[in-house]
Amino acid sequence: MKNRKGWAILMRSRMKLPSNNTTNDNLFNKLPISNEIGLTKPASEGNQMNQNPSSFMQNSERELKAVQVSMHSAVSTSKTDIIDSVLNDFSEGYFSLSFEMRQELLLVLARECDVNRTQVRELIQQYLGLHPPLGEIGQESGVEESLLTAFYRTERNLRHALQPKYEILFERLNTHPGGLKFLSILRADLLSMLAKENIASVRALDSYLKEKLATWLSPASLELHHITWDDSASLLEKIVAYEAVHPISNILDLKRRLGVGRRCFGYFHPAIPGEPLIFIEVALQKNVAQTIKEVLRDDPPTPESEATCALFYSISSTQPGLAGINLGKFLIKRVIELVKRDMPHVSTFATLSPIPGYMQWLLIKLASQTKLAESEAGYTPHRLDGGSGSTFRKNILHKEEEAALMELSGEFYSGKNGMEVMWNLLNSKNYEWTSFERLSSVVRAPLMRLCSRYLLQEKKRGKALDAVANFHLQNGAMVERLNWMADQSEKGLCQSGGIMVNYVYRMDKIEENAQSYFGEGHIQASSDLQSYIESKLQGERVTGEK
Amino acid sequence: MKNRKGWAILMRSRMKLPSNNTTNDNLFNKLPISNEIGLTKPASEGNQMNQNPSSFMQNSERELKAVQVSMHSAVSTSKTDIIDSVLNDFSEGYFSLSFEMRQELLLVLARECDVNRTQVRELIQQYLGLHPPLGEIGQESGVEESLLTAFYRTERNLRHALQPKYEILFERLNTHPGGLKFLSILRADLLSMLAKENIASVRALDSYLKEKLATWLSPASLELHHITWDDSASLLEKIVAYEAVHPISNILDLKRRLGVGRRCFGYFHPAIPGEPLIFIEVALQKNVAQTIKEVLRDDPPTPESEATCALFYSISSTQPGLAGINLGKFLIKRVIELVKRDMPHVSTFATLSPIPGYMQWLLIKLASQTKLAESEAGYTPHRLDGGSGSTFRKNILHKEEEAALMELSGEFYSGKNGMEVMWNLLNSKNYEWTSFERLSSVVRAPLMRLCSRYLLQEKKRGKALDAVANFHLQNGAMVERLNWMADQSEKGLCQSGGIMVNYVYRMDKIEENAQSYFGEGHIQASSDLQSYIESKLQGERVTGEK
């Protein structure tokens, strides 16, 4: 980590920073990986490697068996005085296991500590037997109170019986010191496991645990903390380690992000002290920034009294095991309320966000359409001249864009059509196209237009394909503006050709937007963004007429 | 309240103390009553009383309807931006209702926001349809993964469907400011309602809410706070108001209970700030106190460095709506740990506890046995001379006790037998019997012996009949010693003839005791206590031989 030396000097002591290999979670990574900063690292592997392979296997098996025993005991013991030590044994044992062994263990948990279905079946029969007289429930007239009491009791018993046995383990861990954090790591492992193979019982285990975590991490149980330079080094170290959007390059960078004209807020849970579950970085500005450079490098910053806009330029969640639990929505709402209260002159709340999936989507689109165009050229020549009716081949470029790109062909990048030229250009080494005005000016129009289409129209199960877009839209934001060359870092160019987007949160529209997005998948966008799409429709017509 | 003036002078400002009419909860009261210290009092009744009766009725009906509407809306709305205001409307509306109207409303909640049983029935059919292939669950061999996925999904849906709709209201209130406190008041109302009439759907509602509250108030979410004289007046005022065992008589009394040689600890929930859910008062002493006077009046107190014993002399829970949720167990365990850590020379942890149900039990016993004896005397004279085989008549007094009591007959209290004399003596005005050595010395032996029998042998559903005994026994304490004339206050004499009991907590035995009490109803007692019972058996034999 670049700033390690700076840190050490500043803190006048040697610090152990999480190593660079630590996988930082990114709000936008959909498949989280176990992240154990601050927790004991698997120790056994290193130790055991020195032994011969067969005794290693035996030891591992023995170790796994031991953890399995403590797991079963943690589920089934009724001796409350030993629960704490059993849970400690289990969690310590779990951390000492390799990922493969953890998988084996989780499979055992999913299968052996599942619902008692014999009991469920019995109770269902009992329940159905009591059911008939209950057409009248609600009136309770004519039905004997004692019969009703029996019915309600059976219903409650059935409800309880439908809870898997691992419910007990989860509940116990939740009230055990360090247990909540452990559960989030356990869930991260479940997700890694499910990413490789879909096992129904493990999926059910995961979905159950997710529900429990969501309950325990309700907004009411979370504390909002304004993170400043006065916070402990151990906390700030975690901010550096977990920042997932715009890496913190050195100690000065960190100090600036916590200083004048900046805010950093974290959501903390009392059971996971000293470590935010999610945090957001805010810049106070005169106008909504168009490039990330303005935000990260403005020196001196806008005086706070002149700010009219609060820009959310980075949101990072720290626990891969909390994937799918939307803590960001409440965080953003509370931060808006807080800033509004403290700074009534701030009236605009916007983001400057990456578009992590754009370039990947576009390159696949260009490649597949190019191929289709080629194969069609070979097999169905009568369709080459366009035909807007074709469901297979669609030139996603406008006529003028196609022409401009073909002009580059030969001189810079070769290609049989505009799409292929564009593909080659975007794949050029070191993003060469950004260094030449001639190239970037040609590619700008189609890149911006298709980006708008990607954000507003490309969907998966009714939701925006882009994970960040989906995040802000479900929180009730609208798509406000695309910014050209807004992030010229390696990562920014790779993800989105350097384009960034402003989402805007209007407090009076948040719920309405969120509802119509959630219900009908409707995406609220500014007229600016809309106009790209309209020109696209026009463009297609034009293309079709070519 | 006696100490109001003292308070006001001390705090140099006028304070509104909860009035004497406020019903304080007592851990030992089994039927809690709504307690709304710190909350808006029903306002509507007073206002409406000025109107004519018919418009009063109409207004009340209208009001009830309005609260009902906000309740339904709080259950069913999906607009998260209005939830807060809907919940505010609902809770404010609820507080404005009379108890009768609250009952009506709760009945509506229980019946109309119940489980959707049509959906449950459908899902059960679906579930049973998927069930057969699941004999193999656990192996997942031969069963298609997609079938299993469908099965788990149906099972989860069934689990969800079995949750009543009011679950949503509870969850929403729990995360709403003031909502947890409101739910505890709502439950107190439910309990008052059920004390008058057993309605199955309301009982189910109560049992569901109790489960939820127990989850939310898990020890992990509670904070232990050492309450001192440096705490806010608003907090200390609540200690005065809620002290349920030994009323705090004046400001000096309060100060002493928080001063040298004393400790007061409260369990707080973050969502109910400034008000403990339960608190415990501790005296540090050289020996386990035998009278409450020693505890409340010792001046100067034992120097803390000389203390070897921590005496729990008062535990008060403040929320009637949390009845049946044992917060005391964890509180006592944590306090023992804390005191042990801070004062390693303290090795004995004991209580000095009231026996709230003793005198009531004894008087009923004496009266009924006397009556039985009389009726037997009339109808079955051949049995008058005893007959240990009689299942109806049992002289619960020993031969010597009977004789000593009959000696008093005529001179002080009349009676056909010892039991009747004793009944009359115990019911004498102003506890006259305690003022005369002659009387109290005669009654001491049977009172102590029968008290031991009451504590160790009288049970209800396998649990100790006495509520305080049951509380400490289920927490893992043992019955150590009975103390004669330990509490000579009006309340003490009325409840238990002035007898108090020491329960002792031995850390190494707590779990063992709790388990055997919970499992087999076994009550652990000192040999001292046991000897009373043994002499009782002897006594009965003697009576039988008379």
TrEMBL record, chains A, B:
Superkingdom of this protein's organism: Eukaryota
GO cellular component terms listed in the entry, alphabetical order: mitochondrial matrix; peroxisomal matrix
GO terms of biological process kind: acetyl-CoA biosynthetic process; fatty acid biosynthetic process; malonyl-CoA catabolic process
Domain Malonyl-CoA decarboxylase N-terminal as annotated: residue spans: 153-216
GO molecular function, one term: malonyl-CoA decarboxylase activity
Segments forming domain Malonyl-CoA decarboxylase C-terminal: 221-505
Pfam families the UniProt entry points to: MCD, MCD_N
Name listed for the protein in its UniProt record: Malonyl-coa decarboxylase
Organism: Thalictrum thalictroides
